[in-house]
Every structure is written in structure tokens, then in C-alpha cells.
Design goal:
It comes from Protopolystoma xenopodis. By secondary structure, the chain is an all-alpha fold. About 35% of the residues lie in helices and about 0% in strands.
Length: about 110
């Protein structure tokens, strides 16, 4: 690794002594419920509540990332990876939405 002459050098660190030390910096919060933001309902597009049988996978089959359910239960830094995937999915959905509807309809 160090033979690549990068801007940093790989090596051992004394920063982490135990697994708990590592977990403490992974973003895992002891009380996640206390950190949740309130749910906001967007009505800017006149969106109605989805029906009981609404399935995003069927509604937007062009979006591959919607079809996968990922287990995030034991990961402390997964928010980075999955926020990117959510951004990707939202980008696809936004593009599909623009193709189906025009701004003058709202």
C-alpha cells in the first residue's frame, strides 16, 4: 500500500484499543429514537396518501435499487453507502416523474 506513494501512509494506530473504541466512532447512537426527526408530509405536488396496495417496485420497474431490501441492522456507517443509493433511486424516480408529468399540471 505504501509503495503507491500516496498523500497518506498506511500504518497501525494507537487510537483504538478495543472494539468499543471503534464502534464509538462509527456513528452508532445508543438511543436512535431520540435522534429521529419528525415526519413531514409533502403536499407541494398535491400528493395523496398511497393506497394500501401501492408497490413502488411495480410502479417504477425501471428503478433497480427499489427492488432490493438491505439489512442495515448491525452497521454503524451504512448511512453513507445507503444515502448514496437512495440518492440514486430518487434521481431515477425524479427523472421518471418529469417524463410522466409537466410542471403546468400542478
Amino acid at each position: 500500500m505504501n509503495k503507491l506513494n500516496s498523500t497518506w501512509k498506511a500504518g497501525k494506530t494507537s487510537r483504538f484499543y478495543t472494539v468499543d473504541d471503534i464502534i464509538a466512532v462509527l456513528g452508532v447512537l445508543p438511543n436512535c429514537e431520540a435522534m429521529q426527526l419528525p415526519l413531514l408530509k409533502s403536499e407541494s405536488l398535491g400528493a395523496a396518501d398511497p393506497s394500501e396496495d401501492f408497490d413502488a417496485r411495480k410502479n417504477w420497474p425501471e428503478c433497480p435499487s427499489i427492488k432490493k431490501i438491505r439489512d442495515q441492522s448491525s452497521c454503524g456507517s451504512c448511512w453513507v453507502k445507503y444515502s448514496k443509493k437512495n440518492y440514486y433511486a430518487n434521481n431515477i424516480l425524479g427523472t421518471l416523474f418529469k417524463k410522466r408529468f409537466h410542471g403546468h399540471q400542478f
